[in-house]
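Annex B. Sample input.
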Amino acid sequence: MSDRTMRAVTINEFGGPDVLTTGRIARPEPLPTEVLVRVHAAGINPVDWKTRAGHGMAGLQTLPLILGWDVSGVVEEVGFGVTTLAPGDEVYAMPWFPRPAGAYAEFVTAPSRQFARKPDSLSHVEAAALPLAALTAWQALVDTARVTGGQRVLVHAAAGGVGHLAVQIAKHLGAEVIATAREPRHTWLKELGADETIDYTRRRFEEATGDVDVVIDLIGDADDTDARSVSVTRRGGLVVSIPSGVSDALADAARQKSVRTSPLLVEPDAAALAAIARLVDSGTLRVEVERTFPLEQAADAHRLGETNRTRGKLVLDLAQ
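Annex B, continued. Sample output.
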């Protein structure tokens, strides 16, 4: 078998988990300013299974497609002009998003400056769980909301991949953090820094809290969560609606109360990944990996992820 091929999980049509098939294909070659990274682990995110099903970022992709954006691995080769990385460097990234990155494979190529050095204190599996989720939380809280000490921040779906990191980053910024999640996750979320926890299955969050400066809405218009969030937000406060953007209902409710709204789509950001790595290595931020799967079981990982009941992240471990 030629060493210029690699294992990869591909899809030839959009559909259910069974469209994910594992085989061997030609491995990519780095262009000038790019690096070739040997993937040790690839994180799985909701956008992966939404895209696989024909939603999410499907409209920006062409078939056949290798899914996945979260990567942790080791630089194998560097293209002409690369000065910041060298073969042997351990790196992590969310390259190319929302264009295809092809993370469910043994190798990926991307611009060198979309990669950051992996946190020293994490394994590749743990590091692969971070990029998309941590960058989403960082860009929502730091870049968009510009959260400062003393503000009240409400995080919906706080036990999920983005949510559990958003709780910790908001706390690091000095905020008072309110987290919505099912009751069995409450003790864990308080260990991560949540000051208040709300079981949304037992009580509507707008009956349990209020006077919030920033809402990080990771649910969207399901059960009108986005529009209902306005009722707990202070005049002039901000609702960042991440999964589906600003719906008409959210925009209308926000105008009536003089609340600001913002959509957010995460972008590659090596500088933010470097800052996130420092938080991880200092013990300020930790990532939760609920379960790992070998590359060949990507379909099983998608089936579990689609239950929306996981704690933290799921990861493909290419060493398994």
